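User: Quick sanity check before I run a bigger batch. Here is a single chain. Can you write out its predicted 3D structure?
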Amino acid sequence: MTLSPAGFDTLAGLLKSRSGLALGPDKLYLLETRLAPILRRDGIRSLDALADRLRTVSAADGPLAREVVEAMTTNESFFFRDEKPFQHFRNTALPRLLAARQPGAPLRVWSAAASSGQEAYSLAMILAECRAALGGRRAEIVGTDIARDQLARAREGLYTQFEVQRGLPVQMLMRYFQKDGTNWRIADAIRGMAQFREWNLLADLRPLGQFDIVFCRNVLIYFDQPTKARVLEAIAGRLAPDGLLYLGGAETVLGITGRFAAVANERGVYALADQASKAA
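Assistant: Done. Predicted structure follows.
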């Protein structure tokens, strides 16, 4: 499948403006593979023909444009991905935050780019295991994403056998899931700990409120430097003064923003720059 430079610019521009995704010419194969189902369904003969449809103002803000963006930005997710961030959250961050908070003060955790919910529910299961330490305080997990179909899956809490076999300890599967046909449904108590909202990281984040912990992992790698800086600046504005930001193992704030600094001896864990030494 070929795509003219003008067609590529149209599709790449749409993705950049709507999601922050920076797509280089070397990623043409992603356009071909991820957008092929839309072309087949709507009888669109080529990517250039798709670009032609999206050039009008009405189409650029319509359902077809949304479907294109969602097809290109939907990324895989699995339970307890990479494990170490969740261990740090449970063993280090959570005890420190609880000790610093007044009794009864709620704990708020944000799973940015939550996809189908595995990260948010992993955090919920950890909080359920630490219920005694919470001392009756309310814990709220907010998962956000721009993909409506993935958010619908997250809210439903239904996962395939393959999905629960990826990173989920057997003990937690038995404790927090029930068999539902050939799939597994997460317990209502865990599902009730998380809410999922459609939200774009490029939009105003202030209505989401303040968070003690932010997981924004394996997201920045898809952005260019200015967009990374913009998103990190916005996240810094939503983080409690002693809160923590978790990024993916291949992501960094170095050379992008001065708002965050790495927590010593921890990969992918960041605090606000003037608090980093206290978080170590």
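Residues 95 and 133 are 8 Å apart (CA to CA).

User: Great, the batch can go ahead then.
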